[in-house]
Amino acid sequence: MKTILKILGTIILLLVVYGIIAILTFSKDYHFEKSVTINAPVEKVWQHVGSLKAYNTWDPFSKKVKDIKITYSGEGDKIGDSYHWSGKKSEGEQAVIETVPNQKLVTKLHFIKPFNGNAKGTFILTPEGSATKVTWMIDNELNPVMKIMKPMMDMNMKKMFDKGLGDLKKLSEQ
């Protein structure tokens, strides 16, 4: 019994030490990005990236929300256009803040549930011959608790971005 308590105590101590190190050393600025090359011209890829409505057809994050309801304001492809989502344990808003047709879409994300926060999402399309390189980025500021969870966030973002970019590639190459 003492051995089990010592092991549990050691694990708890290591977790506390990790938490303190993460809070003190991890940057509050969070950036994650992934790219994929799609065998389609920029104009065709833009059809699936250049508006919030098109984005929501392949977005892995909204597909993960149970019982999601999406309400749009505008067509989703002009500055100020937005949508609000709500579902089981998730709610938020996303709005277009910058757009350069066939090149760039930047959005502001406001998360309401399960936690309050803001982030910026960016898509950059770069022609590469007859193909298109799509770079998807997210940037936000981490509070101390989120700093502790950064390695898990990186793993989740990689999984979700890989899924989303894979679905975008399939759609665009049809």
From TrEMBL:
UniProt name for this protein: Polyketide cyclase / dehydrase and lipid transport
Superkingdom assignment: Bacteria
Transmembrane segments: 7-26
UniProtKB keywords: Membrane, Transmembrane, Transmembrane helix
Keyword flag Membrane: yes
Species of provenance: Chryseobacterium indologenes (Flavobacterium indologenes)
Keyword Membrane: yes
InterPro entries according to UniProt: Polyketide_cyclase/dehydratase, START-like_dom_sf
